Amino acid sequence: MITCRTRRSVRALVLAVATLAAAGTVAATPARAAEPAYRYAALGDSGASGNGTGEYIGGNADGCYRSEYAYPSLLAAKYSIPLTFAACAGASMWSVADLQLPHVPTDTGYISLEVGANDAQLGNAVNYCSYSTPQACEQAFATSSGLIANEIPGWYRQLLTMIRQRAPLARVVIVGYPLMFSGASCADQRLDATMQSRLNSLTDRLNEAMKQAAAATGVGYVETRPAFTSHALCSPDPWILPGNVQPWEALHPNRAGHRLGLAPAVEAALSSPASAAPSRSAARAGAAPVPALAQLEPATR
C-alpha cells in the first residue's frame, strides 16, 4: 500500500484519457460478448493486491503480491464472479491507467480501485519519520501534503473518467485506506504518539481527496477506517502488519484485515446506489443496470 516507486509525469495520464475518449476502448482488449456471470475487476496498488497476507498467487513471480486472501479474491469467490485481478504492488495512478485498465473487459459489472498512497509518497513520509533525521521527516511530510492538496484530486478525477469510459455499465468504488497507527507504543514500531497522529492525518487527507473525487465523478467511496479503529498497529488485535516484518509487507493489512475489514466494506459499497453507473449509460447501451453485489446469489454461506 505504501511502496514508493518513481512516477511518470501526470501528462501520461492526461494523454491516456484523451486516447481512450477518442478510441472508445483500449485497442489491446476487444469488447467481449456478455457472459452469464457479472465480471469484477480489481485495480490499484498493494493494498488491493493483498500484500501482507503472506501467500501470493504463482509464488509472486510477477512481483505484484496478488493473493487469494485479498478482498478482491474473497469477494469473487463468494459470488462466483470472474475476476480481472489487475492490482499490483507499487502501482500509481499512471500505471493503473497504462498497465491495468486496458485489461478490464468493457462489459465488467463491478470495479474497485485502491490507489493513491504511492502517488502521495506516503511511504517516504513513514520511512523518513521512522528512520531518518527530523529535517528529512519534515521535508517528506511537506511533499506528501503538497501532493495531496494540489495534485491527487485532479489525477483521481481523470482516472475515474477513464474507468467510466472503459466500462460504462460498471458499479465503481474507490477504496479508502485504513489508518495504520493507534497512538500506542509497542515493540513493533518506533514512532511516538504525536508522529503517529501526524502520519495518520496524511492518510485522512488522502482519503478525503479520494472521497471528493468519487463524489465529483459519480462513483462510490469505501470508508475503511471505522472497521480498523480497534485494529491498528500496537492494538491487542492488529489487522496491520508491523514495521519489523519483511520490508515489502510492512504496514499492510493482514489476512484478518482483508477478510473482516476490507471485504465487507467493499461488498457493501458495491451494493449501494452511489456505486451504480448513470442510468443514461444503461439506456444508451440498451442494457439493464448492473444489480447491487449483495443481490447476487452467494456461492458460499
TrEMBL record:
<protein>
    <submittedName>
        <fullName>SGNH/GDSL hydrolase family protein</fullName>
    </submittedName>
</protein>
<feature type="compositionally biased region" description="Low complexity">
    <location>
        <begin position="273"/>
        <end position="294"/>
    </location>
</feature>
<feature type="region of interest" description="Disordered">
    <location>
        <begin position="273"/>
        <end position="301"/>
    </location>
</feature>
<dbReference type="Pfam" id="PF13472">
    <property type="entry name" value="Lipase_GDSL_2"/>
</dbReference>
<feature type="active site" description="Nucleophile">
    <location>
        <position position="46"/>
    </location>
</feature>
<dbReference type="InterPro" id="IPR013830">
    <property type="entry name" value="SGNH_hydro"/>
</dbReference>
<dbReference type="GO" id="GO:0019433">
    <property type="term" value="P:triglyceride catabolic process"/>
</dbReference>
<dbReference type="InterPro" id="IPR036514">
    <property type="entry name" value="SGNH_hydro_sf"/>
</dbReference>
<feature type="active site">
    <location>
        <position position="252"/>
    </location>
</feature>
<feature type="signal peptide">
    <location>
        <begin position="1"/>
        <end position="33"/>
    </location>
</feature>
<feature type="disulfide bond">
    <location>
        <begin position="129"/>
        <end position="137"/>
    </location>
</feature>
<dbReference type="InterPro" id="IPR037460">
    <property type="entry name" value="SEST-like"/>
</dbReference>
<feature type="disulfide bond">
    <location>
        <begin position="64"/>
        <end position="88"/>
    </location>
</feature>
<keyword id="KW-0732">Signal</keyword>
<keyword id="KW-1015">Disulfide bond</keyword>
<dbReference type="GO" id="GO:0004806">
    <property type="term" value="F:triacylglycerol lipase activity"/>
</dbReference>
<feature type="domain" description="SGNH hydrolase-type esterase">
    <location>
        <begin position="42"/>
        <end position="260"/>
    </location>
</feature>
<feature type="disulfide bond">
    <location>
        <begin position="186"/>
        <end position="234"/>
    </location>
</feature>
<keyword id="KW-0378">Hydrolase</keyword>
